[in-house]
Amino acid sequence: MKNNPFTSEIFTTLWLKHFYDSKPSYKFNFIKNVSFYKKTFLPVYINVGKNLTKGIFYRLQKEHNDFKGKIFLLYDIPDYFNVNEQVDLINKKLEVKKIYQYKGYMMDLTNFSSTKDYQTTQFKTKNKRYVRQSHIGRLEKTFEITYDFIFGEIDENKYNVIFDHFHHLLNIRFKGKNTDYHHLNKRKWQFYKELILPLIRAKQASFLIIYNEGIPIGINLNYHAKNILFKAITVFDYDYKKFSIGKLSVLKLLDWCFENNYSFSDFSKGYFDYKEKWSNTQYNFNYHLLYDKSSFFATLMANTIETLFKFKLFLRKHNINEKYRKFIYNLKSIKNDDKNRDEFISKMLSKFEPSKDFEIIDVNEKKYHFLIKHINDFLFSNPQYRKNITVFKNSKTNIIVIKGHSKSIQLMFKNNSNQHL
Q1: Residues 289, 72 contacting (CB under 8 angstroms)
Q2: Which of 33, 110, 287, 336 is the most buried (most CB within 10 A)?
Q3: What's the average model confidence in pLDDT over 287-315?
Q4: Is 249 in contact with 235 (CB distance < 8 Å)?
């Protein structure tokens, strides 16, 4: 694979800085296009990047035997990379084990001419109504929506603003899921923040951003190799959930891929319903173990590592990892004082004229941010321009009224609680 961002000098240098104290990596003559690090005194070498890549490619070289007595673990090898695994043709003493870990999902665009062409073919049967253009059109008619695909040069201040908002949206999203998201780990996030800027400038990474009035409501982080776009981390503002921002982002990425002659848009490893619906190709994500089979110790270690990863796969198949992440999140969590905010009784009003007890409130104030989702849900059901909406609060009862040009909706706390307003 050409122009692989995960074996680039930028990626390798920064990964070693954040996860290996900037110590030098190991390189071997028998294997090209990948470097390694070593954690212990044991002769086990792991690819730089470990499991933070979206795919590693390597080539084995004849007439070199510097693998003697050693074990090499390479994470994340998509089988469509077509890595040459015929090690017996390279060296009779070298063995490879392929350890299946994940299913991967991808949009193969080679036989399509446009986003519409792909969409029509992919959703022509049971999923025909999965992507509703009316939802996307409603978003663009309701809000001041703009798009930005950042690929190449970017101002560092702009980058920092985007990345900080990216972190903010991810925190909110996974807080709502009660899940500990490993990419938000402080060490990993610092690595990403330092990594992505130079990769964007090298055209090996990109951001697709969907804005409402200049504020990001959807951010997609992508990596780039030759003819392949890897969809890495995606988040959207959950307040806009009904407007199908996630589907809109996939369509925009497809547009970009066709405009720039990309052959594949890769969702990478791990099952999600949307990946299965959008993808026309599935593949296996394997870990590769290369080792000296003439060495008893290397063979024993390789078999032990293989057993460990098969056990991890067993745990994932039984959702133990998801339960673990929720458990870790709950350990870290502090009880949220806002837990009752969304417990409203709602009532549609065909007509509303505010009395003197009602005052207009600004939902951009932090204490009223929780109302944005209710406003957006109202707008989805009653299409109109967002700036036509006025929000009132009754100063005596704390009843909220969202008023549109013809209809309104009344919100009242179930327990008539005033503590948040």
Answers
A1: yes
A2: 287
A3: 95
A4: no
Q: Where are the beta strands (DSSP E) in 142-274?
A: 145-150, 205-212, 215-225, 228-236, 264-269
Residue predicted with more confidence, 421 or 358: 358
36 or 335, which is more confident:
36
pLDDT, position 62: 85
**Mean pLDDT score, 256-268:** 97
Secondary structure (3-state) at 6: helix
Q: Are strands 390-394 and 358-360 parallel, antiparallel or unpaired?
A: antiparallel
Closest CA to 84 of 94, 93, 389, 258: 94
Helix (H, G, I), strand (E, B) or coil at 409: strand
Cα dihedral 10/15/21/23 (nearest 10):
-60
Q: Name the nearest CA neighbour of 253 among 285, 272, 228.
A: 228
Q: What's residue 335's pLDDT? A: 46
For residue 348, give the 3-state DSSP assignment: strand
* 3-state DSSP percent of the chain in helix, strand and coil, to 5: 40, 30, 35
10-35 pLDDT, tens per residue? 999 999 999 999 999 999 999 999 99
Q: What is the CA radius of gyration of the chain?
A: 26
Which residue has 């005194």 as its token pair? 41
Residue 340 is predicted with a pLDDT of 44
For 395, the token pair is: 């100063």
Instruction: Give the pLDDT confidence of 158-176 residue by residue, as tens digits.
Output: 999 999 999 999 998 888 7
Q: How far is it, in rounded angstroms, from Cα 149 to Cα 10? A: 21
Q: Residue 151: what pLDDT?
A: 97
User: Can you say whether the dihedral through the CA atoms of 198, 200, 203, 205 is positive or negative?
Assistant: positive
